Fold each of these.
Amino acid sequence: MKLISKMYDHLHWANMRILDSLKTLEDQSHPAKQLFSHILLAEEVWFNRIKGLSSSAKGLWTELSLDECLKLSKTNHQNFKELLSVLTAANEEDTIIYKNSTGKEFRTTLADILTHVALHGQYHRGQINRLLRQEQHEPINVDYITYVR
């Protein structure tokens, strides 16, 4: 769980770097904003699934304002920090039962869900950087190695 905890600290650090970059864009309806909103909404949905709460009403592709992104990012960070602080290696194999956005039920281990959430955000942050580069903006370094340095 120590490594997963570190991955979530990186996730929050990377989210804050992307958010700071998005604040500098003149076009506040930039497509990168929708991708960033998706990252944060997915984090929230997965946290709710882990906690056994409903996640069916969440629109995973809703575009949030940058203020909403900041608030949700901080909430997600706090929620996962609290969750990870009480988990042990014994919890890693706990099975989480949840329904996806179409209502189909799945069973997945907690460790696999936590790993997915950390990697999912990194995937989309890469897409955001590609969009920024295409428009001659400087991509944001969100590499894990940069974080640990």
Note: The mean pLDDT is 93.
Amino acid sequence: MVTTILSNGYGEDAVGALLAAELLKATPSWQVQAFPIVDAGRAYEPLNIPILGPRRVMPSGGLLLHHPRLLVADLRAGFLAMTWRQLRDLRRLKTDLLLVVGDVYALLLASQVRTQRRYQVQPLISAYHAAEGRPPPHRLFMEEFTGLERFLMRRLVRQVYVRDEPTAVLLRAKGVPQVTSLGNPMLDALSVIPRPLGLKPPVVALLPGSRGYAAEALALMLKAMTHWPEAQGVVAWALELDALPSPAGWQREVLAPGRIRLRCGSTAVPVLRERFADILHACDLVIGTAGTAHEQAAALGKPVVAFPVAPYYSRGFLRNQTRLLGAALTVAPAEPVALAAALRALWSDSERYERAARAGRERMGEAGGSARIVADILQREGLRPVPAESCARPR
């Protein structure tokens, strides 16, 4: 039995990898493979499964519609040629089961694959987007279930899995009956026993993300931390340490393999790789320029302060995050003093802090979705009996 996971984005790859791990655990005799559309599929590499497709990352990092400059950069870098190669490979692909992690674009590509069994995990769109107002036209498909996506769901997909029950209710009302909510898979990476970091509160997690603007964003976050000396910052660095910036005035101290400390006067900020979950559990606040990581932080009740990094991490993207996260997200100017003030204001106002923490937990759904989605798919395929508690969630 060959199962292919098609995912179209950084966060989608992370969700796809969690689902792949559950599939390998539940069906060790199956061949599981991945086809990443946007990222190089690095999230799948620890699983040692085949990773198909060109695996080429464009300059925009998948954000080509966020700004005309990004679209032009991708076109110049060969976006159309890469897309043609992806379509060619997908048309040649034959798989017993196709699990699509993503939006309408992923479904369009999935329509080219030769298979009779398609399932979709839609981790992007939430009913909370619609509740906060209509997005601009170029972001419509990122925040609403468009007519095209609903058509493809009805025509191609045996079952659609969304992040929370309000979103499932919304999609059923729009004419897609085969939809259910079994939990938010992106939260499963946080379901670990955290290893203590030994930091004193208030602890601020610095999340610059994994795209090309991470170094620029981190430099600004570090400067912000110098304006709140009472706080302890810690960086969750997703890239190679060679890409870690050394802003003017900061010294780099190597503490251990994979662990560096940046120091500027009396401000010392450790930089950790592969400790993301530990950092989120340990922190009290977040300052970041990320996507999925912000949602994961909000789910743990950690208020997030974000700022734009033009043209990549745009104000439009932040408006999208605000519609989704509500009071859990505070958007501040991209200026160190203003960012430090925003963090201090949240920490010093207990009522506002609790409101932000509560909003994040409410809007992100519950963990455990990866295992329940895989169990539900197997049950629908008649491949394995599933214990009742595995799928006991609202439908």
Note: The radius of gyration is 21 Å.
Amino acid sequence: MKRLFLGVAATLMASSALAADLPRRAPPPVFTPVPVFTWTGAYFGINAGYAYTESDTIRTVGIGTLQNNVNNLLRSPAVRLSQDGFSAGGQVGYNYQFTPGSGIVVGVEADAQYMDLQRTGVQSIFRPAFNPNVLTNTYRTDLSFLGTIRGRVGYAFDRVFVYGTGGFAYGDVTQRVGFQTAAPLTYFGSRSRLDTGYAYGGGIEYALPTDSFLNFFRSNAVTMKAEYICYDLGSHNLLVGSVGGPGVGYISRFRTEGGIARAGLNFKFGSY
């Protein structure tokens, strides 16, 4: 029995020594889930682009007997005064994404921008068969500021968001007409006010990866967008009243309508 006991003890000691020499099992890796990007959150940013007008024709009719001057082309019945230029401004908004990653996104955005849309047109008309004087017709239109408050709805393919947009628009509009007979100003009309209407369009937005050189915040909160917006602030009649000429005057009709193609950069609060 003594010999058996000593043999078992020696075997156990050898097994322990052999087990100590074996490599230890590594602990299981800790799984860290990768955050899923979501468009949900408030944002603000800047934009710049190209703006132009549509429906640029100013139509004029005479009041009473002054319509004869329009018929005889002394005062032009239709004058095209197209405009184009740059726009620049900023925007703020909020998006909500129903399912993080890919899914439907809804939101609201308000923007305001300077519009380089002003144009003056001058006509010099001499038709001695109807009037012995040189007549000068001057037209001016100016949209110096445009703002919108729009809803946005679209679909996000992870970091790519494609959307449509539409809503309320307002702008600072100036319209002016002056008619001269020889040197004196004989008819004049002017209006400058905040006109309202609507805007609609669409665009695409992309959230920059963290390691992008354009992502100067080094976060997932910087997005770039390209969009096209149409605006329509309606039509208005302008009385070009007598300031020394015969009769009451003329009525000139303007329409303020156009589009903006622009790019923008946003910073979004709440990366994920």
Note: Helices lie at 2-21, 67-71.
Amino acid sequence: MGGTTLTIVPTPLGNLEDITVRALKALRAADLVLCEDTRRTAKLMARYAIVKKLVRYNEHDERSIAEAAGFLRQGKSVALVSDGGMPCISDPGRKLVTLARAEGVAITALPGPSAVVTAAAGSGFPADSFVFLGFLPRPRGKIVKALSKAFELEKTVILYESPFRIKKFIDLVCEEFGPDAEIVIARELTKIYEEWLKGTAAELRDKLSGIKEVKGEIVVMLRLPSFAEDEGKLGGSGAMTVMFVCMGNTCRSVMAQYYAAQAAADRDLDLKFTSSGLSAEGAVPAPPIVKELLIKEGTPDFTHTPVRITAKNVKEAGLIIAMTHAHKAAILDKFPAAFDKTYTLEEYAGFGHGDVDDPYGRDEKFYFETFRLIKKSVDVILEKLKKQHSS
């Protein structure tokens, strides 16, 4: 199949002028075009005076997949389109692309129209990263599970929904995730009846209840009201909280917390510091050597009770610093939404990928060396945060 090619060609969502020059060249160069609906693709081809063989491609029909693969085996140059937007993204094409790659066929994916990207850009919701769920499963339990998992990441959630189910879906959001959930509905993007609806779940439920029949293709974007964009960030509303985490919250994270608080005060940095442990027990005190080392650095005498890490203190933290990679992995396993603010101490300080070993039960020299490493790392981290705040 040396000369065989499969070109993924995105086509307009509705407005036929939204096709790229490169997409038109690809359609003109192809031996044939695989499409969802030959009638719809024929209108696009006629608009640009392109005459090609159109073959319906059905992702759910093994015979259709086999026929499409047969064209590639014959050495044909094949263009793959969907009814609108990017093939393979909640549209047919993935199975053929997988098969083509397995057989060494040259594949080119062209950039172009995409409903999810268009809706994200126009929603006004944060879209530097988002969770795209495509079409959700039908059973209510599976919908709730999918949304719950997605919301854990505290990102904008985007999905496609049928006009026949949109009212029921908004009802579900109200009941399961609260009437204050923020929603944007983009309907019939780029078409003459394009419409944007924005409001809380309760507001959109009331608005849709007054519409007898919802029509068109729909993209839904959701955010929970707890997703505060500036919460816990340096320079945002209030001081950022930095949380240090070790296993028992008696040694390493305690030394980091209290030393960082003193060092930040010396630098006039408006930061808060806490600490917690993955398996902390409140009755276990910090060893006397920990307080001795800290007091020598000018830290006031203190009483510390070990705190176990919780969803609440994870959410409140703008930056989470773990003492080892194992701690970091354990944090992210339990709280995956914290992936973009969790680092190891040496990683965030830029010292490589080492760990801060546990000094508990070791001699004073080991405690001293551990504290020296923590101080060195914390000092670099504070300077880093200071620069971020001033930039």
Note: The first strand starts at residue 5 and ends at 8.
